[in-house]
Amino acid sequence: MRFPCRFARARGLSSAIFVLLFLALLSAPPGLGAEERKAPGVTTVVVSSAEDGAPLKGVVVTLGGRYATTRADGSAFFDGVPAGEYRLVVEHPEYNALRGRVNLPEGARKPTQVKLERVLWCRLAGRVLLEESDSAAAGAHVSLPDGRRPGRSTNSST
Predict the structure, then answer these.
(1) What is the pTM of this model?
(2) What is the residue-averaged pLDDT of the chain?
(3) CA 96, 100, 102: angle at the middle one, nearest 5?
(4) Residue 110: what pLDDT?
(5) What is the DSSP string of the chain?
(6) Position with higher pLDDT, 19 vs 47
(7) Looking at residue 81, which CATH number applies to its domain?
(8) Looking at the domain assignment, is residue 63 inside a domain?
(9) pLDDT digit string (tens) for 26-43?
(10) Residue 155 within any structural domain of the chain
């Protein structure tokens, strides 16, 4: 005994609707219903000396969580960084570090120019004397106003 199968006819109809919807999506213009996105652009940071404008080689540049070191022309490149605001840190042992934020637009970007000032080194010499007797204070430690201690100290009681 055979039973009529209405399900097969309904299944055939739903398959036809699916194919029509699929073809309609294929023929729709690109980006329909979706926000247009631009690929992340290359970000260049160019570091030079504030004193004479010379490019600085070997400077460590941190952009967000990414690191690069400047080349001989003072440039560091970051590829594929999405648009947004990032923390920028530029450091070299012979120059004062620069810390700040940079806002990167979508698409093509202009290089970020950074000028670093040279660290001023000086030699500090002297004796620590006790106020009441003007004699040398044995074991005294000297610190700078920002809390740092000089790299090498000698302490004599003469």
Answers:
(1) 0.56
(2) 79
(3) 130
(4) 92
(5) -----HHHHHHHHHHHHHHHHHHHHHHSPTTTTS----PPPPEEEEEEETTT--B-SS-EEEETTEEEE--TTSEEEE-SPPSEEEEEEEEETTEEEEEEEEEEPSSS-PPEEEEEPBPP--------B-TTT--B-TT-----TTS---S-------
(6) 47
(7) 2.60.40.1120
(8) yes
(9) 666 665 555 566 667 789
(10) no
Compute CA distances 62 → 4, 74, 146, whole Å. 72, 14, 24
Predicted confidence (pLDDT) at residue 101 exceeds the cutoff of 60: yes
Most confident of 60-64, 108-112, 148-152: 60-64
Asked if residue 142 lies in contact with residue 149, where contact means CB atoms within 8 angstroms, the answer is yes
Domain of residue 51: give its range: 43-116
Longest CA pairwise span in the chain (Å): 124
* Domain-embedded: residue 111: yes
Number of compact structural domains in the chain: 1
